[in-house]
Structures are given as structure tokens and as C-alpha cells.
């Protein structure tokens, strides 16, 4: 995702994260959030609470007031995604989730594995039913080989 298309708050967060050599996992543990949600926040796809803003400001040595103003001026998180061709009510949410969280997932995977690619032909998918009182949730687990890009 190009930093030119990100809100100023996100550009600041990504800059300070890189400057301090922090991972999304490290930042997430300070915020008490998941690392993918934290990465989504840094890419403008999630909304921070005032507590999140204060913790981030403290961790990254930024002004909480300026960071809060930057997020307020940016408006709601950019969650509108274009998913062409997907109309099936079971399949569409998965297209939407990848479109929404794709930049966050890519960044977290790159931090953990380095520069490379998930190998689609090797993906194994498991589906589980998760009882939630009167309803059920679906848990998907995706597992795939990761190939590092090589230099020569």
C-alpha cells in the first residue's frame, strides 16, 4: 500500500514504527490488541480508541493531541473495498476480508518470514464450527508454504 494514499496519522505511525525497528506484534502487545488488527490500524483500516492513541503516542514518542487530531481529520477508517464478481453470500465475505486486511496481513507476514510469497497451490484450508450460544461462528484456518524471494 502506497504511503501517499494513507492518512497523515498512519504515515506517522509507520514512519516511527520503522525508525524504532518495532514489529506489529510488539506494538500490539502494548495496545492489548491482535497484531493483524494493529497493522490494519496503521494502514487506515481500523479505528483507534483514545486509549490506543495515548498508548501509541507514548510508545512512539508522538504528540497524543496531534495524533488524535490527525485521526479525527482523516474521518472513519477506509473500509470500502471493491470486490468484483463475488456475489455468493458465503464466498463474498472472504473476498472482502482479504481486500480489507490484505495490507495488514502482508506486513505481518513479511515481518515474520521476510520478503517472499505465500504459495497458493499448497494452501490447506480447515473449516470448524464454533458454537456461540444460539448461533455458530465459522473458523477458517489457512496453512501454506512460504517461499522467500532470492537474490542472485
**Count of β-strands:** 4
Main sheet: which strands, in order across?
Answer: 1-4
If helices are DSSP runs of H or I spanning 4 or more residues, what is the number of helices? 6
Tell me about the largest β-sheet: 2 strands, antiparallel
Helix and strand run = HHHHHHEEEE
Q: Structural class given helices, strands, pairing?
A: alpha+beta
Query: Which residue ranges are poorly predicted, with pLDDT under 50 across at least 5 consecutive positions?
Result: none
Helix content: 40-55%
* Head-to-tail CA distance between termini: 26 Å
Mean pLDDT: 92
Shape: globular
Please explain how this structure is put together.
The chain is an alpha+beta fold. The chain is built from six helices and four strands. Helix 3 packs across helix 6. The two termini are about 25 Å apart.
Summed up:
This protein has 152 residues and is α+β, with helices and mostly antiparallel strands. It is built from 6 helices and 4 strands, in the order ααααααββββ.
Distinctive features:
two-stranded antiparallel ribbon, single chain, 6 helices, about 150 residues, 4 strands
